[in-house]
Each structure stands twice: as structure tokens, then as C-alpha cells.
């Protein structure tokens, strides 16, 4: 018998009716003769309420207490789902982070999973008892409750699937799979049957909101087969799998976009060695992540411009940090522009087909779209454009690469 | 340095402002150079919501899962109070039932505390860290969460005070102490400075709602000095203490009443040995608690009547159980009356003053109040009367015993 891990997010367990529906989705796997562990998030809205209370009670913030408060949300849903399962004739019990236990480091609110003791849980699965496991939470060596931060329940599910050597980890969500691009922008967007881990990772970091990069990276490194599927529609979703050597893809897999970027330009920097290190060192010291970077030399080689992108939320802070270094950096001025979008073309096909980049640049040029910054990885090309052209760029590229047909 | 245990119920932690007020009440004890452990309930309303969900999710009820769900309420308040304390400069940390641990038996939803490991907590108290402890919850030998049932947080507080050998256990509530009777019925009712455990126990079981009998009984057997005091008003409350041999009280301590009683009468039972055992055995088998009992022989000694009282909620069930035994018991008929009140006069003074019962009966007779059933213990006299006369009886007795002055 195979072990399947299922994960249901907050909207999938938002009320008692939905929790009952989840119980039926669990039963469907049981009826296929699988052993099932289900990881659940808190009911939608609950975590936000708890976070609000924890923040409003006072300005001083103890992340250990914050985690204790916030982790109570999942405690409610595991109990409710266990009872819902029992009520349709399925033996089930809940497991909290400390009961397994789910050991993490002590970086509260964004803890990393170190080890999961699945010995008890495995023997219960073998007795055909469904394990209903609280996502998002763990405990430290000193038995304090931790939470895993953003996308934590996905990470819990993948880690559990790895520890159980599960056949598959199904991430149930409010979309029915991974699409070639956002269907709200391109109605012809097509659901992918499969996508590789590398592609999924690039999609996630390029702005596709289906899965958090962290859980994908963990699934990749532990060889956990992931499936993204709908909580509300009963059909197969998208399988995230390891790359198949035999299969040379002809097409890219998808187009992602993000409007949460800002472009920052330092104009008229003295072009001396180490100047880039000073700029990006100062930003790193202030915990600002820099994504894309381009440096352009000026004609007389004495001055240079540096343009880079950061999260839109960090734009003001980045400018502030650089202004503070102005006496040292001796630039003319710094300009931040948040009316920017990042468009990314993603696919392992790039490894074998050099024409993919050229297609991207010529399609965007035909539409008169100016490219501010370009960056590439082995399976991704990203470019910053003016935000107004986002939909036009995504649609044009989706057409040009023929993504509506498989 | 003395250890003080404070307990705050659901209305005392109903919102963030009240939790901040609780933090100041904790600080007041710290400022008196005490070490403090605070036991808290869930925010008012939270437990009811959780109970509702746990009941509504399906008709089959797993008490282990029910307890897991319901115990999450206290997890929220301990975290919030710990942060509130830190924000006024007091070192504090939360402790959940499983973190101490608070060991209980496995009778879920009404578990009994077996043992509390206070070793870690005690060393933290010695470092002047306030312990914020989740009331109402514990764990079994198999690490499942249990809850203690009605009045559970009071019981948690008393058990913790016993384990810590605390100087005092202060139960903060929405009244400011124990009164000679209900001030809503008798405005002249007087707050008692002290009351003995035995009296408090009788008061609680006679209908006074200040403390649950269970926590009082535990405090008595472990010699924990209890204080009932207000969360909202800063003054001393009522101390519940051991009886002082030297002090012979002249007066009773209080008058309690309860309208939640029903009188059940079995008319025309054959007067044969063992008939009472059959009646009350059948009721006990159906988990119906019987309070007061009176048996009156008929003139010719062949038939007898039995009258007893049960909780009003159990009245229908009691009648049903007895009707099922009719062929065996051969009574004429069974009558239940829920329009009944129990009036109790309580005080250790009864031990030395035989006139107290006579005063009670003559006062009630003067007012034309008929007594249906009378029962006595060493320090209590209770009687059932028609519910319409409740206020009149309580007021008249309060006057007759001169309780408005100490």
C-alpha cells in the first residue's frame, strides 16, 4: 500500500461544510487502498485574527509567544477534520506539531524543520488510521512551539511526505493546477499536466502564486512527487516531477509576471573597482533582497549607472540606504520606479533551443515595449518593463510560444 | 519570597484591554515582592464557539478530538497575556498543559489532575519570571490533550497552588467576593471577609455560583488558602480558610438558593424492604444525581410515598426511568414539579447553636411558606419550597439571622 500525503489550505477548511468536503477527498484516497496523512492549515481568517491580536496586544513582540498564539488555529482544524472523518466511517486522529514531534530550529515565526519523528504515525497508518496533522507548526529542543512562516503548511506537507517516503504529496488549493500563465490575463492559458521542479521553482520566484518556492525546493531535494490540484473540482491537477532526460521539450512551460517589483537606478557613479560591492553590501546589511542587476558604462568610462530591482515594498528603504552612503558613493542621483513589472519566460526547453530568448525580445520589440533590465538563468529569461504593458506582453508571448496547445 | 497563584476567568480576559488590565493585576503582586503564576481561561465566547464547532461537525463525538479543539482557546490567552506582561516590563512566559506537563487521567472532557511537574516552572519563578499557565487543560500518559470540564480553570489554579506550595490562590472573577446571600435578591447582603472551606463547599453545592465545588474541595484537601476577588475592583475579596478552633462563630455565614431543582414524588409505593434501593439504584444507573430524599409512611403501613429532588434538567428523565420500573415498583403514580426552589442556611455556627434550625422553620412558617422536603448536614439546613417564595424566603432569613451586620 502506498502512502499519500494530502494538504488542504485555509480556504479549503474555511467552514464546517468545507471541512466535511475535505473528509470526502480523504476518503477518495482511502477507497483507492492508500494510507493517508492529511496536513491542514487554519480556517481562513483565523490566522489573520490571531496575528492581529498578537500584534495589537503591545509593541514589544516575543516571537515565541506569537507562535504559541498563532499555532492554535491549526489545532482547531485538525480536531474538526478528525471528527468529520470519523463521522463518515473513517478511523482518524489528530497530531499536533509537539505530538509527533515535528522538530525545528528555534528561529520562531520562520523556523526550519530539522527532523520529524514519524514512527508512531507510521504504525497508525499501517492500521488504516488516517493521520490528521497540523501544518505550519513544530517545536524546538526546549519544547516551545514554532511556526514555519509563509507557505508553512505546504512545507509541513512536503517534509512529512519525505519522512514517510510517500508516493505523492497532493497540494489542494483554490486553483486546479499550474497554468501556462495566469488565466485571468490570458483566458486561453492551458493547465499543465506536468512541470519540472526547476521550472516550478522559477515560476514561483517569478511571481506565480500557486506554490511557495520553499516547499518546491524541499520537494526537489527530497524527491517528493508533488501534485497541485483543486479542493473543489475532482480532477487531476499538475504533477511537479523530476526532469526526464529522454524528454526534450520543444516548448517553454509558462510565462510568469509580477507587479510587486521596483526598479532603482543610481546615476553617475564613479566607475572604480569595488563600487558595486559597496552598493550591494549596504543594501544587504539592511536586509534588502536585490533581484536583477545591470551596470552600464558611460561613454567616457569615468562614470557608470547601476540599475537593479527590489521588492516594491523595499523601494523607499533602498533609496534611503543609498542616500545615507552618498558621500562615500558620490553618485549624481538615485531614482526609484515602482510602476514596473517583471515578465519571465520559463522552461527547460531553453537548454536545447537557443531561439527562445530571441523570440521573446522580438515579440516585445514588435509591440513597442521597452526592456529596462534583462536577466537570465539556465531555464528562465526575465525582463523589467513598464507595468502598463504587463497584460499585452504576457498575451503576446503566450501566443508567440504557442502555449494554448500542448 | 512567597508564591502567589492568580486565576482569571473568561470575562477577565475577554478582549485585549482586559488582558492588559490583568497584566497590571499581576504586576501589583510582583511589586509586593511575590513570585507569581497566573492561570487563565479562554477569552469569553471562544470556548462556546469551539464547543459549537466540535458538536456541529458531526453527530459522532470523539472526546479526545473535542478536547484538542477546545483547549486551543487557552493557548491564545496565555500567549497574549505573556506579551502584555512583557510590554509593561515584566519577564513572563506561557506554559501549556503539555509543556509542564499537567498530567491527568484519560477521562476526556472531565479529566482529573494526577500530577503536575513544576520543577522547570519553579526555577523560572525563582528567576522572577512570571508563569502564565493555560487553565482547563492537561495531557494523558499517551500525550493526548485533556480538558477538566466545568470550572476546570479554577481547579487548575488550585492544583498548581498546591504543587507550588503557594502562599495563596486568588480567584479573580466578576464579583468581588462571597456574600451572605445573592445581592441581587437582598441588596443589604454583606461581603464576607472570611468563610471556611466547609461553608464554601456547602454554599457552592447549594447554588452559590462563585466557585465550583470541585476546586474548593481540592483546596480544602491540599490546604490551599483561597481568595475570591474582583478582576475589576482593587480591594480585598473573601478569604476561604480552614476553620479556626478558637473561634466559635455566633452567626451563620450565608443563605444560598437554587431554582434549578425539581421535586419528584412517587405515590403509593408498597412499603417493603429494599424498595428505596430499587428506586435510587435505577436512577443512579441512569446517571441521575439525587440530592434530598424524604420517605413518609402511610397510616396503615402498607404503602409509602418517596419524595426526592434532582436537577431540573434531569426531571423528565427521572420520571421516564421510574415509569419503566413501574411493573416492578408497583407505585400508584409519579409526579415531577420543577416550580421549586432550594433554600439553604449555611454556617459552622450550627455546630454550637441548636437554635438556628428552629429560627429558620419559624421564620418561614410566619411567612406562610410551606416546606416540602428538609435535609440537614452538620453545617447546613436545606429545604424545598415553592419557587414563587424564593426572594421572600431569602430576604426574611437574611433579616432574621442579622446578616447585614458582621
List the helices and strands and how they pair.
The structure is a homodimer of 406-residue chains.
Chain A: E1 3-8, H1 16-31, E2 35-40, H2 46-56, H3 63-70, H4 72-86, E3 92-95, E4 102-104, E5 113-116, H5 119-126, E6 130-134, E7 137-139, E8 145-147, H6 152-164, E9 168-173, E10 194-196, H7 197-205, H8 213-221, E11 226-230, E12 238-241, E13 254-270, H9 275-285, E14 290-297, E15 303-311, H10 315-324, H11 326-329, E16 333-346, H12 355-366, E17 373-377, E18 380-386, H13 390-400
Parallel strand pairs in A: 1-2, 1-9, 2-6, 3-6, 9-11, 10-12
Antiparallel strand pairs in A: 4-5, 7-8, 11-12, 13-15, 13-16, 14-15, 16-18, 17-18
Helix fraction of chain A by DSSP (H/I, runs of at least 4): 25-40%
* Order of strands across the main sheet of chain A: 3-6-2-1-9-11-12-10
| CATH third-level topology of the largest domain in chain A | Carbamate kinase
Q: In terms of quaternary structure, what is this?
A: homodimer
User: What about the largest sheet of chain A?
Assistant: 8 strands, mixed
Uncertain segments of chain A are none
Mean of pLDDT of chain A: 92
CATH class placement of the largest domain in chain A: Alpha Beta
General form of chain A: globular
